[in-house]
Fold this protein.
Amino acid sequence: MVKYLIKEEYGVEDAGAAKGFARGERREDYADPWRETGNVVLIGLPGSGRSELARLLAGRTDKAVLTPPDARTAVEALQGQGAIIVLDDPLVDDPEVQPLVHGAGKVFYLMADTRLLSDRVAEREGLEDAEALWRRLSARLAEVEPTFYGVLHFILQATQRPEELVDDALKKIGY
């Protein structure tokens, strides 16, 4: 366990000096991608409710919903302004797309347990083997969740339905 600790040595003039760490800088100290782009980016696994939340947000903000099918159109969407962009997990993980996501606007990760997601997808698509789907989604989550954490601004609990999340999302984007 010790091998994971960071060990730094500091030379100080005052042997009794202490270094304190605060909770972090103020929010206004950070660049606000929303002010620059007006975009809202929704990420998450299938079944998390990204498309439905995008539809609800569009109805309340008059922004267009973009669901890019490939990396090229995802890059174009992320470089644009004033849209709600729904990214499938392979696009978030794409080496051309990933570096652009965080700075493209307010990024919301719709997070939920893979059991719930697999049940939703199985019901929506009429699949009988939700167990196999659950295994695939669990393996995919293990691969892509670190990327999601690296690009997000906010986490929305996708255990709730999109209708229950829309007001929270609107508050977070400043409406």
In short: The mean pLDDT is 87. Helices lie at 33-37, 50-61, 71-79, 89-92, 98-101, 114-125, 130-151, 162-173.
